């Protein structure tokens, strides 16, 4: 470790810009002037739908793609002039990309063999790396003899053995089945804590991002929509895109029609909703976010003032621990709620009163620009 | 098993005839290579190894007048020439074909698809055209016709065969394995030697064996560009037949067939080896 205090700007991406030509001759900004700083030993996730630029950014950091303009600094040094094989960065690929003709031991030891590390140390470090990912003693097997989950772990061991300054993970869990994926999420997070190196994890799976990350960067069409902790991203999304992309959401459009000293009244197609948000101006257009799990069938004033909405029930879906209730508000807009098992009979067409904490209502100014942010 | 319909039975009979048509002449040659009748080679007269012995200049029960191979030395010399030509041309064509295939598969450059097209053309070009063109070129450029011109001539079309076999292998390879190698610190040469080459090796060997057989077997192009001292086996056999069909032909053909089958089987074995490399 070169520094005892983790640098808050260990990795700096400055005005990264990358364009692609479409086959029709149009231009797509895969990365639109992105700036970002990442602290040392942080688990950061690049989250976004396919085509948002997250994989392009990862490839550029790894050295498989080039920037049109901008710079990337790692530990104070620009790396964009270095070819991929000279960068102190390693990658876990989506399809693992193990060398099919080499044993597990040779796959994991590949980086050390290239670096000409002596045999004794090499074998010892291979064994250590395999132990770290929970696969000790399988050096002699071939990748084709392993399950998907085991191949994933071998790819991980191979990528960490060079002790990179930065580990890139390109949707490494997407090919695994759900239970294994959940287990690997926890293991990856533990491994990152243990190694203390920076992980940049790319995914389109918002649950995965929320589970593992210290910071999430939400990318949308080549721009950063929001940078924040999973909690911030989930509870206080800055744009409608983030609100819709992360978790289940009810989003209503409205306009501020009156202000009082407690807050504002917002009209949403005939429904009036009260918000504590004092920053909103009279006449301002606003999006309202209410997460389905914040709605309840029974009033509970203990944690603060509550408000209520009336929904006509269209459909009830049992999802194990909870019920999803789908219906529409009095103004005809679709709405949903997530509630515990309840004694109230739930009949289609029924009018339900839904209660929520006024503080749980999150407002997003309708015109919100993308940010260029720092973590 | 399901009962066959009349049409199905007809198709079975058809396929039997199809394969008979394909292989009967070859099978007859093999059988008649053991025929002891020296006058009419298609009339069975008893079993003998004499024709094989005669090829290799061994003592036979034949009288001197019935020995048809002019000189065993000439035959063996033609065989040796063929082997030298095939081995050299294969070596050069394998190197050229493999490196071209890697270049076209891994890099994008100007006139990329045009180069690809140029590599397919020698395979569809009529042999006689290529033969004449090469002859005019060699004579015009002042080459003395001999083994070296045959080797150069064979390389022109063998490179295409190697290119196609190796290209197919490269197309089936996960290109991310090369990215992974670079990511782990290997430069382009180390990546080629440790990852790309081992993964395409079955294709390279398959392409080389295919080239070897094609080179051994080539008559038309070789005929144009071989010199006086550089007769290959197919050209030599053509010369023999010109002076009348002789029983040794059957024995020589059988030996060549055996040789080709062995090489081709090896080629197919290497080509299919570890095809699932993902």
From TrEMBL, chain A:
It is an enzyme of class 7 (translocase). SUPFAM superfamilies: MOP-like, P-loop containing nucleoside triphosphate hydrolases. InterPro entries: AAA+_ATPase, ABC_SmlMolc_Importer, ABC_transporter-like_ATP-bd, ABC_transporter-like_CS, Mo/tungstate-bd_C_term_dom, P-loop_NTPase, PotA-like, Transp-assoc_OB_typ2. It catalyses: ATP + H2O + polyamine-[polyamine-binding protein]Side 1 = ADP + phosphate + polyamineSide 2 + [polyamine-binding protein]Side 1. One of its GO terms (biological process) is putrescine transport. Keywords: ATP-binding, Cell membrane, Membrane, Nucleotide-binding, Translocase, Transport. The keyword Metal-binding does not apply. GO terms for cellular component: ATP-binding cassette (ABC) transporter complex. The keyword Membrane applies. It comes from the Bacteria. Its EC number is 7.6.2.11. One of its GO terms (molecular function) is ATP hydrolysis activity. Coiled coil: none annotated. Residues 11-246 form the ABC transporter domain. The complex is composed of two ATP-binding proteins (PotA), two transmembrane proteins (PotB and PotC) and a solute-binding protein (PotD). NCBIfam families: potA. Belongs to the ABC transporter superfamily. Spermidine/putrescine importer (TC 3.A.1.11.1) family. Part of the ABC transporter complex PotABCD involved in spermidine/putrescine import. Responsible for energy coupling to the transport system. This is Spermidine/putrescine import ATP-binding protein PotA. It comes from Marinomonas aquiplantarum. The lineage of its organism: Bacteria, Pseudomonadati, Pseudomonadota, Gammaproteobacteria, Oceanospirillales.
TrEMBL record, chain B:
The chain crosses the membrane at residues 12-34, 83-105, 117-143, 149-171, 192-214, 220-239, 251-270. Residues 79-267 form the ABC transmembrane type-1 domain. SUPFAM superfamilies: MetI-like (SSF161098). GO terms for biological process: transmembrane transport. Keywords: Cell membrane, Membrane, Transmembrane, Transmembrane helix, Transport. One of its GO terms (cellular component) is plasma membrane. It is a multi-pass membrane protein. It comes from the Bacteria. It is found in: Cell membrane. Belongs to the binding-protein-dependent transport system permease family. CysTW subfamily. PANTHER family: PUTRESCINE TRANSPORT SYSTEM PERMEASE PROTEIN POTI (PTHR43848). This is Spermidine/putrescine transport system permease protein.
């Amino acid at each position: 470790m070169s520094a005892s205090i983790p640098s808050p700007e260990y990795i700096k991406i400055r005005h990264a810009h990358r364009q692609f030509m479409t086959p029709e001759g149009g231009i797509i900004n895969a990365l639109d002037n992105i700036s970002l700083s990442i602290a040392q030993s942080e688990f950061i996730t690049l989250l976004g739908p396919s085509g948002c630029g997250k994989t392009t950014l990862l490839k550029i950091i790894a050295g498989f793609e080039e920037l049109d303009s901008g710079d990337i600094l790692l530990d104070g040094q620009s790396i964009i002039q270095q070819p991929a094989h000279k960068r102190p960065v390693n990658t876990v690929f989506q399809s693992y990309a193990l060398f099919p003709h080499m044993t597990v031991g040779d796959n994991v030891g590949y980086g050390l063999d290239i670096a000409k590390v002596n045999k004794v140390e090499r074998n010892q470090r291979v064994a250590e790396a395999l132990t770290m990912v929970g696969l000790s003693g399988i050096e002699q097997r071939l990748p084709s003899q392993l399950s998907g989950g085991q191949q994933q772990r071998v790819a991980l061991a191979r990528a960490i053995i060079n002790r990179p300054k930065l580990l890139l993970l390109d949707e490494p869990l997407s090919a695994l089945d759900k239970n294994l994926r959940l287990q690997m999420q926890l293991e990856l997070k533990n491994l990152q804590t243990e190694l203390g190196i920076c992980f940049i994890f790319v995914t389109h799976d918002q649950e995965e991002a929320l589970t593992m990350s210290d910071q999430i960067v939400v990318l949308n069409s080549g721009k950063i929509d929001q940078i924040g902790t999973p909690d911030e991203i989930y509870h206080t999304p800055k744009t409608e895109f983030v609100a819709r992309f992360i978790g289940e959401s009810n989003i209503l459009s409205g306009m501020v029609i009156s202000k009082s000293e407690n807050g504002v009244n917002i009209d949403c197609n005939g429904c009036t909703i009260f918000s504590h948000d004092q920053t909103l101006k009279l006449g301002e257009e606003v999006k309202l976010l209410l997460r389905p799990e914040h709605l309840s069938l029974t009033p509970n004033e203990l944690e603060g003032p509550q408000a209520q909405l009336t929904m006509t029930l269209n459909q009830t879906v049992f999802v194990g621990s909870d019920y999803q209730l789908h219906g529409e508000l009095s103004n005809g807009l679709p709405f949903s709620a997530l509630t515990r098992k309840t004694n109230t009979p739930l009949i289609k067409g029924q009018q339900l009163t839904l209660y929520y904490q006024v503080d749980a209502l999150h407002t997003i100014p309708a015109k919100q620009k993308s940010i260029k942010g720092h973590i | 098993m399901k009962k066959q319909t009349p049409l199905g039975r007809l198709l079975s009979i058809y396929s039997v005839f199809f394969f008979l048509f394909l292989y009967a002449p070859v099978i007859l040659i093999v059988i008649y290579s053991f025929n002891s009748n020296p006058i009419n080679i298609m009339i069975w007269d008893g079993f003998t190894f004499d024709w094989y012995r005669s090829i290799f200049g061994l003592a036979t029960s034949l009288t001197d007048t019935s020995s048809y191979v002019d000189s065993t030395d000439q035959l063996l010399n033609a065989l040796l020439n063929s082997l030298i030509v095939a081995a050299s041309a294969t070596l050069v064509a394998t190197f050229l074909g493999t490196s071209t295939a890697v270049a076209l598969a891994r890099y994008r450059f100007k006139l990329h698809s045009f180069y690809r097209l140029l590599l397919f053309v020698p395979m569809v070009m009529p042999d006689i055209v290529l033969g004449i063109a090469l002859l005019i070129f060699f004579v015009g450029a002042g080459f003395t016709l001999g083994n070296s011109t045959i080797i150069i001539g064979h390389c022109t079309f063998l490179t295409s065969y190697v290119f196609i076999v190796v290209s197919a292998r490269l197309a089936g390879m996960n290109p991310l394995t090369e990215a992974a190698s670079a990511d782990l610190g290997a430069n382009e040469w180390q990546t080629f030697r440790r990852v790309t080459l081992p993964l395409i090796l079955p294709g390279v060997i398959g392409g080389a064996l295919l080239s070897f057989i094609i080179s051994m077997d080539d008559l038309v192009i070789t005929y144009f560009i071989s010199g006086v001292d550089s007769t290959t086996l197919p050209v030599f056999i053509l010369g023999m037949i010109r002076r009348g069909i002789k029983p040794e032909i059957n024995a020589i053909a059988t030996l060549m067939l055996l040789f080709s089958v062995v090489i081709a089987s090896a080629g197919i074995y290497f080509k299919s080896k570890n095809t699932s490399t993902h």
